Amino acid sequence: MNRRNFIKRSSLATGGLFFVPQFVKAFEQNTAKIFNPKKVVIVQLKGGNDGLNTIIPFRNDIYYQKRKDIGIQSNGILKLTDDIGMHKNLGALKKLYDNGYLSILNNVGYPNPNRSHFRSTDIWQTASNSNEYLQTGWIGRFLDSTKSQPYNAIEVDESLSLMLKGKQQNGLAVTNPKLLYQSLKQPFFNDVLSFYKDEHLSEHNLGYLYNTMIDAKSSAAYIYEKSNTNTAANSYPNNVFGKQLKTIAQFINSGLETQVYYAALSGFDTHANQNMKQARLLKIYAESMAHFVSDLETNNKFDDVLILTFSEFGRRVQQNAAKGTDHGTANNVFVIGKNLKNQNKYMGQPDLGNLDFNGDLQYEIDFREVYATVLDRWLGVDDAQILNKEFSKLHFL
């Protein structure tokens, strides 16, 4: 057994667990820490969702002037107020809005916005300034600050995003707890464990791998055995995003002591033929989210769950020649929960008459104000320590 072969073989059998020393720890009960039942589910609409065709300013003439081909007409709008409506494919989301479970934050962004998918995603995930490059994510720093175990933040994906990486502690990436558990019971891993008394495992070269192996097996057993006590509803839409939310619901309903979950829906980079592509994705998002909320309500878990949905940027106000939109700036953020302040169902409208020098929307809410509000008023931690700066709190909580 050598280090190269161990890494090669173990990487094929992790079942979605991001294998790195320090954060693949046993899911041990920390009796010294008071358990906080509050949970946050973060969803990214990857690619830059067009906020103007999601929450539509249908009374604004500028909107239709700049979007002659792709502007959503009245028969495609679900009216929220006298001025604003939802895309019709968000019908399942509108029911949450009508129940007081949804707050819509508009014009959310940051100073000197970056229009690169990768860079802007990093900014949102690390809560950095646009000219600042951080190596830790805001949820990773939450884990560091609270001295949490890795299970306190789970991404339902094959690999771990920067958002969940801290300096001392990282979250976990898990897709299928059963597959992960079964993979780590394979003979190869038992062979590794049989080397416990081998003096080579105490060497720097292999010792840390052995400890990681022990922690991984314990973690896998905890996730599988705990989540196996609950089966999520079978009515979720049969798509990747629906399956992600179904997995998260299973974790939450089973009582897994995880405070933060992260999932994503991809495909929103609609440079051409936008309307049909976006309509399909919005329907997937809304219907999957409605099933998720219903599942949590059925299991009496929704009271303690807050759901944030963001996209790394919005789109340009002016449509392009391909009947699509190019990368823009400020955008919508959706906040879903049972304990929202109803008077703040909708915050702000896009000011299409006051665009920046590039013809883009100007932000009014710094996205880190959203994070600060969640950290302070929901998770009950020092938001300034985690975000490296004091930000104003919003009024949706």
Protein model, in words:
- There is one protein chain.
- With 397 residues, this protein is an alpha/beta fold.
- The protein contains twelve helices and twelve strands.
- The longest helix has 25 residues.
- Strands 1, 5, 6, 7, 8, 9, 10, 11 and 12 form a nine-stranded mixed beta sheet that branches. Strands 2-4-3 form a three-stranded antiparallel beta sheet, with no helix packed on it.
- β3 and β4 form a beta hairpin.
- About 7% of the residues have low confidence.
Top keywords for this entry?
397 residues, 3-stranded antiparallel sheet, 12 strands, 13% strand, globular
What is the CA–CA distance across the termini? 54 Å
Helix-residue proportion: 25-40%
Largest β-sheet summary: 9 strands, mixed
The chain-level structural class is alpha/beta
Q: Which shape, going by the Cα principal axes? A: globular
Order of helices and strands: HEEHEEHEHHEEHHHHEHEEEEHH
Separate helix tally: 12
For the CA atoms, what is the radius of gyration? 22 Å
